[in-house]
Amino acid sequence: MAEVAVLLTCAGQRVDIVRAFQEALERGPHHGRVLVSDLDPLAPALFSADAVVDLPRVDDPGYGAAVAAVCRREGVRAVLPLTDLDPVILAAAAPLVREAGGSVFLPDPEVAAGCQDKWRCHEMLTAAGLPSPPTWLPGTIDPADLPYPVLLKPRIGFAARNIFRARDPEELAFFLRYTTVESIVQQELVGTEFSIDCLGALDGRALGAIPRAMIQAKGGEQIKGETLDDPQLVDLAARTVEVLGLRGPSTIQCFRRGEEILGITDINTRFGGAFPLPQAAGGDYPALIVRMAAGDHVEPRLGRHRAGVVMTRFLDQHLLVRGPEGLVSLNGAGPARR
């Protein structure tokens, strides 16, 4: 039985994911600890983890080497990002992490970068024969020729910010002047939106794909949803994982009208915001990641999740007090900073 430490970077508010890894390690067969990093001293995940590690800012040139040093010092076997801030950097640092005895659960750096940049993602999907909505770079098309309505989206976006809907060339021209970020123009898809929570093995096999209906979202994050029995979406996600080499967790968003897949609109190379939903449906991705990090062979579980699991989210919190050792929870527990 291998000892497995897991490092979750930029952990932020993802207490749900921290606890899921802790539960997976408690259940076995491999035991270990969950380590987290975050620059915000009040990030909720810091107060749920087994230990907190200090890392530099993600834009520090030494970030990847610092992650590898933590892996070597703490015996970390699995490294995963929990936000979109550092997947590309961690993917590039994968060789350093391997030398330190760990694995980065991310695709190759070029794919990770392509998933973050909506124009590069469109090119990548199209080249791979996967569906992508008609997409253009501003300045390369005549606005009068576009199929309105269209969406102006940031090439590298976050939390559904800086997305504008244009109904005609005049509105598009206004939003192009108004936006402050580099953007793409994409045809608005008239259909139903779905998300698929996926897991890819380190050798590129698709292990899991759990579709869910998007019932309600706020700020780009799903707060109400339901898992689905949908072989077409499972097949689409599995093909995408294997064609692009999406190692580790990923979330694929797409639109469908009737039986026609209209296009994949987003790929996030991390756990999705609605992580508790596929977890409750039997995905058990943290446990599978722990097993892979320990060197176990994991068989695919495509289509074996439970459909009809519904999530409705609510607020929760840590209550802390300042003591001689810094911030600790009111019951005396707290993170062990290293």
Provide a descriptive summary of the structure in words:
The protein is α+β, with helices and mostly antiparallel strands and 338 residues long. It has two domains: 3-115 and 191-321, ATP-grasp fold, B domain (D-amino Acid Aminotransferase, Chain A, domain 1, 2-Layer Sandwich); 134-187, 2-Layer Sandwich (Dna Ligase, domain 1), CATH 3.30.1490.20. It is 28% helix and 29% strand. The chain has ten helices and 17 strands. The strands form four sheets. A six-stranded antiparallel β-sheet has the order 14-13-10-11-12-15. Strand 13 (248-257) and strand 14 form a beta hairpin. Helix 5 packs across helix 6. The chain is globular and about 65 Å long. The two termini are 25 Å apart. The mean pLDDT is 95.
CATH superfamily of the largest domain: ATP-grasp fold, B domain
Sequence stretches where pLDDT stays below 50 over 5 or more residues: none
Q: Output the CATH class name of the largest domain.
A: Alpha Beta
**Percentage of residues assigned to helices:** 25-40%
How far is the N terminus from the C terminus?
Answer: 25 Å
Sheet with most strands: strand arrangement: 14-13-10-11-12-15
Q: How many domains comprise the coordinates?
A: 2
The biggest beta sheet reads: 6 strands, antiparallel
Provide the CATH topology of the largest domain. D-amino Acid Aminotransferase, Chain A, domain 1
Shape: globular
Rg over C-alpha atoms, rounded to the nearest angstrom: 20 Å
Strand content: 25-35%
Do you know the CATH architecture of the largest domain?
2-Layer Sandwich
Average pLDDT confidence is 95
Please report the number of helical segments. Answer: 10
Count the beta strands. Answer: 17
- The succession of helices and strands, N to C, reads EHEEHEHHEHHEEEHEEEEHEEHHEEE
- Please state the structural category: alpha+beta
